Amino acid sequence: MDLYQHFRKEEHPFIDQVLSWREQVERSFQSKLSDFLNPREQKIFSTIIGKSTDYQLGFFGGAKNAERKRAILAPYYEEISDEDYEITLLEAKYPSKFITLEHRDVLGAFLSLGIKRKKLGELIVRDGFIQIVVASDIDMYIKVNLTEIKRASVTFEERPITNIVEKNEEWDAHLVTVSSLRLDAVLKEIYHISRQNASAYIEKGWVKVNFETIQNPSFVLEQDDLLSLRGKGRSKITDIHGLSKKEKWKITIEKLK
């Protein structure tokens, strides 16, 4: 059976990476630590490893409801602890009375340092403080170089990972019917916009799927995909139930309140 046929073409390089990691663990009997993975990548990783008794696969992102997590693939006999994931929680304060910071401001400042997104896990901006979870090998670089965000001076300091603030997110679940699983068709139903507007937003680069900008309206969505539309919030597909008698797709979506 061709493993690749079950995944998107653009996901094939990640599949190759996972297969390479599995081979390395099998050959060297040493565990492999990944960068931060989005939920879709975590699902692919789990699917490939499956229920094999030769390995153990773990994910950890600091918080119970973390979306982005690092993975460890290890021989079945190894014990995996939270420390093995090599993640660091950094925290900074800013004067919220004088300046407003949003998630995108902090993310933009982080990326402007030339660091890849895969080195960053959870990012929380709330009530005058910022928390970011990063790969431990870059924590010192962040502390030294990320000192200003949108004209606000910040000083990041390390905190115990147990100090991470859990996100108080509430999601509304709905069963909806869509004409197809194309991105423009699903956006139309989730955000109650016309399909024409949905296509325009996609082509403008306002839509992300699994944290990646998608500019193709015909992009086909799958279960567990995370979506975001600029200015209209985030959503996700939690289940795809199949086709109705009228040849329409029945799916369960959740939208962040």
Plain-language structure description:
The strands form four sheets. The chain has a six-stranded antiparallel β-sheet with strand order 10-15-14-13-11-12. A four-stranded antiparallel β-sheet has the order 5-6-4-9, covered by helices on one side. Strands 1-3-2 form a three-stranded antiparallel β-sheet. The protein has six helices and 15 strands. By secondary structure, it is of the alpha+beta class. The chain is 25% helix and 32% strand. Helix 5 crosses helix 6 (195-203).
Low-confidence stretches: none
- Strand pairing plus helix content: what structural class? alpha+beta
Average pLDDT score:
94
Number of strands: 15
Rounded to the nearest angstrom, the radius of gyration is: 20 Å
**Side-by-side strand order of the widest sheet:** 10-15-14-13-11-12
Helices and strands in order, then pairings?
Layout: H1 12-28, E1 32-37, H2 39-49, E2 55-60, E3 69-75, E4 87-93, H3 103-112, E5 120-126, E6 129-135, H4 139-145, E7 148-149, E8 152-153, E9 157-159, E10 171-178, H5 183-191, H6 195-203, E11 207-209, E12 212-213, E13 226-229, E14 233-243, E15 249-256
Antiparallel strand pairs: 1-3, 2-3, 4-6, 4-9, 5-6, 7-8, 10-15, 11-12, 11-13, 13-14, 14-15
Helix pairs in contact: 1-2, 5-6
Features:
6 helices, 257 residues, globular
How is this structure best summarized?
The chain has 257 residues and is of the alpha+beta class. 25% of the residues lie in helices and 32% in strands.
